[in-house]
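Hey,

The postdoc asked me to send both predictions to you directly instead of through the lab channel. I've kept everything plain text so nothing gets mangled by the mail client. Protein one:
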Amino acid sequence: MGENGVGKNYYPQGGAAAAAMEVSSVEHGQAGGSKCYDDDGRLKRTGTMWTASAHIITAVIGSGVLSLAWAIGQLGWVAGPAVMLLFSLVTYYTSSLLSDCYRYGDETTGKRNYTYMDAVNANLSGIKVQLCGFLQYANIVGVAIGYTIAASISMLAIKRANCFHVKGHVNPCHISSTPYMVIFGVAQIFFSQIPDFDQISWLSILAAIMSFTYSTIGLGLGIVQVVANKGVKGSLTGISIGAVTPIDKVWRSLQAFGDIAFAYSYSLILIEIQDTIRAPPPSEAKVMRRATLVSVATTTLFYMLCGCMGYAAFGDDAPGNLLTGFGFYEPFWLLDIANAAIVVHLVGAYQVYCQPLFAFVEKWAQQRWPKSGFITGEIQVPLVSSGFKLNLFRLTWRSAFVVATTVVSMLLPFFNDVVGFLGAIGFWPLTVYFPVEMYIVQKKIPRWSSQWVCLQLLSLACLIITIAAAAGSIAGIMSDLKVYKPFFTTD
């Protein structure tokens, strides 16, 4: 893929050795024909619109879909779907802008930007590059924590569903989520040894299938509940004053914005996904725009159906997590299948999100200590496929990262509040601001032209939404911390 270390032909930037390898690979490509190498001397990319769509769907239709019924419950039948549609349109539009920044200059022959940070560096430079890197990688760490929490809640829900089935719904069935976080962490240590994006396509496709599985089950259970209720619950304005205090109504509504933003968050890995797409024609930007359209349209349809049907089924009592909040108790085996699908999906989504961070750290280490056998050496693993090689630094640092995020997840197992906060802090800078600013530079849009003004107004509006949503989520987390005891909280 690219110089970020995500691709198979990674080597650090700069230096005679790197330049020699670049020339050698290009010459090899010319000798062996263009079937082997792309225009930048890397092994030929093989991704298509469908593999890119699978990566996006894996990243987008994540745990966020399960909180949408609650989010619509705070906003009501009018504002809820409207806000969801608004976020989908903004995400599609800014993702299209960002996809144009994969190549600097001409979209078919310009210099490739292999990572989000590369694109920012090529178009903006200066302090904005460091700011982008901090926000991107901090958000990835946050997503890893959020997915660990969500996966443990789903595993715990399987145990509780079986408990409720045997002991009755009045039994509290208190179970600690900590052991399940450990189980998920152990699984991620294993899967995190997959070197790069090229080798996790199968995991993304499996995860995308799982996301459709549990979303469909949630939708079906919602429809059944609406039929059983003999009507649709909910109101035009959402949860009413009286059921919650006026200030809680405000905070919860703002948090709902963060939850919806999180459900559409994937821009921070868009460039890395685009770098898997095969070379033109057509251009990578055109393929990525089609993949984005297919993915965002598909996810929005599922979000509308699942979120609205969940709210219609439970009204103001819609749980924070549709399949683990136990609005549904039966059939317990169907809930088990749905929650198992969530866990499998989150295993893949965790890897899709974390690959850019893994690659960044490994690239930096190889540039800093190029002669270290611990960092650059590889060991052939005979028990696995012949193509798999184990790197000791990758094993050590990725395992340490998984352990760290797992421990933090144990300290902060607040699904809705954490999801809302992550969605809020990542939405404006990574999904809106940087794509807009890079597009303005890339297309040389004149300052104070009508297009420039419109893009800046879009960015300003999204900044206001981000600040408000972050405030609501922080208020929710502070409220949770008042009654929480680390490592002892049970669900």
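Protein two:
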Amino acid sequence: MASKLHLLQSKVAEASKLVSKHGCSYYKQLMEQNKQYIQKPPTVEKCQYLSNQLFYTRLASIPGRYESFWKELDYVKQLLKNRQEMKIEDAGIAALFGLECFAWFCAGEIVGRGFKITGYHV
């Protein structure tokens, strides 16, 4: 255990040296590459304005997303009505999508319980 702790400490020290040596140049390079996104002057008021702009733009996009949702739902209903004509590829994609939804549900439940898996007595 002590050897693992020593190994971890040496890795952390190595990473710290790397960040202190190259961190500033990486930051400058990142800012230069993305300067078109930087607002002048960088004030709290400007940040609040952009935050509100993002929020209300997202809010304004809800009707379009709502409409797209119903179109997708109508498409699924049509597929179910004509399921005799459905290809095996479409059925496979639907099954994988259902499995993915179930997996995300299970992961969410585990996270909601604080990463505790119930049913096991230790």
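Summary for protein two, as requested: The chain is about 75% helix and 0% strand.

Thanks,
C.
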